[in-house]
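Colleagues,

For the teaching module next term, I've prepared a clean inverse folding example: a structure given as tokens, and then the sequence designed for it. I'd like students to try predicting residues themselves before seeing the answer, so please don't circulate the second half yet.
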């Protein structure tokens, strides 16, 4: 519940920022002239980027939460917090075995790898692995 409140607060801050950008763009546009219109265009581009990034992050969060629920319902979830490096090696081995068998790796293996990267505090690789898991799960 705490995470949902934090996400709601961040979306509210982003919405306030977007409103402020819209207000600035309108003011620049009304000022007229090439400089005013140029600033209005630049502010509008910043507004669109803000909306796009916020939307993409919300979709990523919703999709990863859906995968987390599905992963937690698997037949034999791991018990207790595993040692991060060992979990990372097991996840990579599962992906390699699936690819060596001629098929694409299951989304669960990539999600597990994302959790292992997250436990090792490598957020960039964790997000990339979870994105791959989302793509694999959607494709099945």
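(Answer key — instructors only)
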């Amino acid at each position: 519940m705490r995470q949902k409140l934090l996400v709601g607060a961040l979306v509210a801050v982003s919405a306030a920022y977007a409103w402020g950008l819209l207000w600035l763009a309108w003011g620049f546009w009304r000022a007229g002239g090439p400089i005013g219109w140029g600033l209005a265009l630049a502010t509008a581009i910043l507004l669109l980027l803000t909306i796009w990034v916020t939307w993409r992050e919300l979709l990523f969060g919703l999709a990863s939460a859906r995968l987390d629920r599905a992963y937690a319902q698997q037949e034999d979830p791991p018990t207790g917090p595993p040692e991060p490096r060992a979990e990372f090696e097991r996840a990579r081995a599962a992906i390699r075995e699936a690819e060596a068998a001629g098929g694409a790796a299951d989304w669960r293996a990539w999600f597990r790898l994302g959790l292992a990267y997250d436990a090792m505090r490598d957020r960039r690789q964790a997000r990339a692995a979870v994105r791959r898991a989302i793509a694999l799960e959607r494709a099945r």
